[in-house]
Protein: Peptidase
Amino acid sequence: MTYCIAVSVNDGLVLTSDSRTNAGIDNVSVHCKMHMLPTIDDRKIILLSAGNLATTQAVLDQLRRDIKDNSETNLNNVKYLSEAAEYLGHVSVAKQHRHASTGQNSFYPSATFLLAGQIENEPHGIYLVYPEGNYITSSKQTPYLQIGENKYGKPVLDRFLKIDTSLDEVARCCLISMDSTMRSNAGVGPPVDLLEYRKDSFVLNEYYRFEEDDQYLIQMRRIWQEKLSEGFAAMPQLNSCDAQPFPSPYQ
Structure:
């Protein structure tokens, strides 16, 4: 399984991904799901991926070859992030159709991507590209997008992320979201990759990789658990409410 988060706030972007992949309970391995594309200096584009690993690798290979061959459409000549998302969708659909044509009934070649970055003087942003090739972006009310096993880590994002949240606070929130997911789903696991991008900088020099025994991750997990336990203990007792008999089915 997979869990990836992309957040776009006023100050820039924060991207987070796990690294666990599996093809069954006896075939678990580690693959980085955060990919920086080799673009020119006036842009920075990063992809997070979930889904079939063969499709993901085929899509990434095509994107890199199109850049190298200076194809008619590639990530170096698109003018907008939305155009990059549309191009990514076309490439992904083509690779999925090619793999699906093998005729294997139990083979699911679908892949989902988060595309994030900034192009020239355009605003930074994030896009979720679905297996069907269509895409959505974030909003001021919901400044994040997720792919993969997203349900366990969503509540903390909804509670704490705002469009004006600082990048460092966003990063900590994403790590808590990732840790909550790893705790509840064995298919999501370390190493955890995290990247902060500050708007208009066009540099990617705030990258972190957290192994399972990373002391910062362990400390964060311990403090979060302690504060949750304190909050739970402070909740009012149920006996403070007025109890009443269970309604009769004949009433």
In short: The chain has a mean pLDDT of 91. The chain has one domain: 3-230. The first strand starts at residue 3 and ends at 9. The domain at 3-230 is CATH 3.60.20.10 (Glutamine Phosphoribosylpyrophosphate, subunit 1, domain 1).
